[in-house]
Amino acid sequence: MAKLTNPSKIKKKQQDVLGFLEANKIGFEEKDIAANEENRKWMRENVPENSRPATGYPLPPQIFNESQYRGDYDAFFEARENNAVYAFLGLTAPPGSK
């Protein structure tokens, strides 16, 4: 039996990422994969093979810098905990941050 994912957990993770980006004035474009089949297909095709779950599809949030895959929520969270979000995102950190 497949493990069902709690939609509110996904939404919380998405809000966590978006809130951090907004608070740190990091520009981003949010892609809705629930309402847009093209966005969903693009995400599924562009998450690298070694970052996909063993079964099913990768779940949001998945983070990209343009078309370069940067990681999932767990990787983002780890980078945030280590004060290394700019490096994780592939961005130049402002003075005084990593």
TrEMBL record:
GO terms for molecular function: SH3 domain binding. Appears to function as an adapter protein that bridges proteins together or proteins with mRNAs. May function as a ubiquitin ligase-substrate adapter. Additionally, associates with translating cytoplasmic ribosomes and may promote the expression of specific mRNAs. It holds the Pfam family SH3BGR. Monomer. Interacts with PFN1/Profilin-1. Interacts with ERBB2. Interacts with ATG12. Interacts with BECN1. Interacts with translating ribosomes. Keywords: Cell membrane, Cytoplasm, Membrane, SH3-binding. CDD domains: GRX_SH3BGR (cd03030). The lineage of its organism: Eukaryota, Metazoa, Chordata, Craniata, Vertebrata. InterPro entries: Glut_rich_SH3-bd, SH3BGR, Thioredoxin-like_sf. This is SH3 domain-binding glutamic acid-rich-like protein. It is found in: Cell membrane; Cytoplasm, Cytosol. Its main location: membrane. Belongs to the SH3BGR family. Gene3D superfamilies: Glutaredoxin. GO terms for cellular component: cytosol; plasma membrane.
